[in-house]
Every structure is written in structure tokens, then in C-alpha cells.
Amino acid sequence: MSALDKMQQQAKHTTHSSAMEEDDEIIITADQLASVATSTAAAATPSSAEASDKPQFAPLSAKDLRTDRWESRRIRVPPHRFSPLKTDWLKIYSPIVEYLKLQVRMNPKSRMIEIRSCEETEDTGAIQKAADFVRAYCMGFAVEDAIALLRMDDLYLETFEIKDVKTLNGDHLSRAIGRIAGKDGKTKYTIENSTKTRIVLADSKVHILGTFQNIKIARDAVGNLILGSPPGKVYSNLRTLSSRMKERF
């Protein structure tokens, strides 16, 4: 064996021994792993002294969120709803004062219902609920239907005119209103019962009270009647949609 071969063997042996030493350094035992995890958790967890220095904020209640500036709403009463308002005033006044803890009064001179929050008001959104309730009554809804706005959070009001769907004038507009109402209100009641909404026809305006999805279905049905669809076709579409809703839920 030549001297060159001996030198190559010695170099290979040295490289192999150094690689073994590096592998020994890389291997981590279970004890070392446990000590590393303990030190990491101790570093991540703040000490009791540091935790005590941080401010602790308790959740705020509705009364704490209330400011000294009281909110108010004013809703104008249409002339055709002024007489019914006198009859149903007790039914309107009681839930606003007893349930929502608000102050309400009727201003005969300006013909407006004024609502204001006070110190006893607990819910920050109570005044908006009361305003929606009174506005729904002024649109023509019954008190029993409008009061649902105070008890449920997912009810909405939507208003649109017949001219928004199709431009109609004269007798054509009257016939469209007649198609929506039907004989003795049959068509309107059918749409209300199928979609679980309430509909008010006020001249050329249509007011719908209900949930978002139900309002969409009722609006489409009323729109089809305005465009000239026969009531029988609208009934069949409503029947199909109601069956789909029952299967979904």
C-alpha cells in the first residue's frame, strides 16, 4: 500500500468520527426536552407581579354605556291616522313606558309623537324600537302587529310605490291596486298568510312588515301582481315557496 492510499484512509476515518460526534450533539434526550418546555412555558407566562400591574376592566352594562345626553325621536302622524290614534293611544303608550322605560307624549299642535329616553331607560336601542313601532302604526298596521317590532329583533319595515315596479296611471293604477288586494282582500290575506308578513295598501304605496326573507317573497308576489300576473299563478308560486320553506326548516 502506498503512502497516498494510507493518507486517504486516515482522512476518511477522521471524517467519519467527526460526523459521529456531530450526530451525538444533535440528539436530544427526554430530560433535555422536558427542561426546555418548562423554561419556555415559564418565559411565556407572566409573573404574578407583572399580571397585577395590568389593568382589569369589568364588562360595561347598558346603564354604563348611557350618556348624560338623552336621545329623542319625533314621528309625524298622518291626518288619516289621527282619529285611530286617539282610540289606541293607551295600547301605544303602555308598552313604550312600561316595557321600554321611555317617555312619550302626543303634541296636538304639531301632530307629532315625541319619544325621549330618561334615567330609567336600560336598553340603548329601546328608543329606536319605539320609533319603529310608532312609525309602523302610523303607516296603517294594527297595534297587535306593530308591537311585534318591540318583542323581536329580526323584523323590518319596507315601503315601495307601485310606480317603482311599473309606471301606471289612471285606471291601470287602480286595477293594479285591485289585483293586489283581491276581492274582499282575499289576495292580500293569502300573501300575508303564506309569507308570514303583514301588508298595508296606502293609496299607491305598499308597506310590508316581516323578516328579511319573508319580505323578499311578499315583495316578489306583489310585484308580479303589479306586472299583470293572474292571482292563480301567484298562488301556485307561493304554494311552491311555502313547501320549500317547510322542507328547509
UniProtKB/TrEMBL annotation:
The name this protein goes by in its record: Pre-rRNA-processing protein pno1
The species this protein was found in: Kickxella alabastrina
